[in-house]
Amino acid sequence: MSTEIVLTGFFSSLAAGLATGTRALPVLFTKKASDLLFKVILGFSAGVMQAANAFSLIEPAFDLNGSLGIVFGSILRVLAPHLIHRFVPHFHPALGAKGLSSKLAKFYPFVLSHLSHFNVSKVGMN
After folding, report:
1. Long-range pairs of 6-9 with CB within 8 A, sequence gap ≥ 24
2. Mind listing the pLDDT tens digit for each residue in 58-108?
3. CA–CA separation, 94 and 85 (whole Å)
């Protein structure tokens, strides 16, 4: 392995890490962020992650499933979070309990977090 490649990778990773830390610095100088700002920041970051995920996976999905698979996957990508929010019991601090009521409401987040971690790990291994 060439030393030039290793140094390029090292300095690229260092630059990315420093940029991430620099973007986080304003948090240290704010006393309390408003709820609106918090929602905007979370919404923006969720949108960036969704876009990065969609754009990096669109070509392999097309190769595997064609146009119909992409259309079905896009619809499922929008529909699944809505259905999960509607039917899975969960708690909003401002709004209270939402979703279907159940005695297992405190157990669902545990199960969902483990299932999502398992799926992500499984995809990463493949």
Report:
1. none
2. 778 788 888 888 888 778 878 888 888 777 777 777 777 777 665 555 666
3. 15
Nearest Cα residue to 87 out of 67, 62, 64, 112:
112
Parallel, antiparallel, or unpaired: how do β-strands 96-98 and 90-92 relate?
Answer: antiparallel
CA–CA separation, 125 and 121 (whole Å): 6
CB under 8 Å to 98, separation ≥6 — which residues?
85, 89, 90, 91, 92
Domain boundaries of the chain, sorted by first residue? 34-87, 90-126
Q: How far apart are CA 15 and CA 104, in angstroms?
A: 45
Q: Which residue has the higher pLDDT, 75 or 27?
A: 75
Paired tokens of 82:
């809505």
**8-26 per-residue burial string, b: 16 or more CB within 10 A, e: under 16:** eeeeeeeeeeeeeeeeeee
